[in-house]
Specification:
Blueprint lengths: L5 E3 L8 E3 L6 H10 L14 H4 L18 E3 L3 E4 L5 E3 L6
Antiparallel strand pairs: 1-2, 3-4, 4-5
Length: 95
């Protein structure tokens, strides 16, 4: 059995989460979440997702965003998250 760590947002009714890599240690996962825009300044909580941290949240629908798992919409340049606003560009040759 492989343990996968996940970080959830502590804002009321926010569904955002950051899912870690299987088998990664706590320090690695904490650093990855912080690089993705999560506020984890207090080790014992509360934790805030990129959407809530910037005043765009809460995330109310889950989807494919790599930063908060919020729902996305297809745009000309890539997929934009409804929650945190992150733009995931399309791979080269796809538009």
């Amino acid at each position: 059995m492989t343990l996968v760590l996940a970080t959830v947002c502590d804002t009321t009714e926010c569904l955002a989460l950051h899912i870690g890599l299987p088998g990664a240690d706590d320090a690695f996962e904490r650093a990855a979440a912080e690089r993705a825009g999560w506020d984890l300044t207090r080790p014992d909580g509360p934790h805030y997702c990129p959407a809530c941290r910037t005043g765009r949240g809460p995330v109310v629908e889950l989807g494919e965003c790599p930063r908060c798992h919020g729902s996305t919409e297809a745009l000309r340049d890539g997929e934009r998250c409804h929650g945190c606003g992150h733009l995931t560009p399309y791979p080269p040759g796809i538009n």
